[in-house]
Amino acid sequence: MNPPDRRYRPWHTRGMPTRRPHLAVKAAGFALPLLLIALLVVAYDHDCFGSLGWDGGEYLSAMAWTDVGVLFVGAALLAAPAAWRSLGVGMLVGGSAGILLGIAFLALLMVAIARTPIPF
Asked: Where does the sequence pass through the membrane (predicted)?
């Protein structure tokens, strides 16, 4: 007896879009870095770590290290089972987007400072 064909779909599901079972997990992996960065922004706004001597630079470096850490954790999750792999893919996309947006912001800031008529 031959094994069933995996590509076979019952007649009532033909023409319908296929399911994406791990799309929500990927979205959660993408949202995790955004949530961590948002928590750091709230901590900066309320000066939560001011008693430890944190100024703006420490918060900025914490945001950068958060993005780098998310990239490493996302890459490590690629070796895990399927649902965890999807979470890792989402984390890689979110961390990469965070790093690219940070680089774009720094480039925009440097261009703005270079074009400022105020002498420094």
From this structure: 23-44, 64-84, 91-114
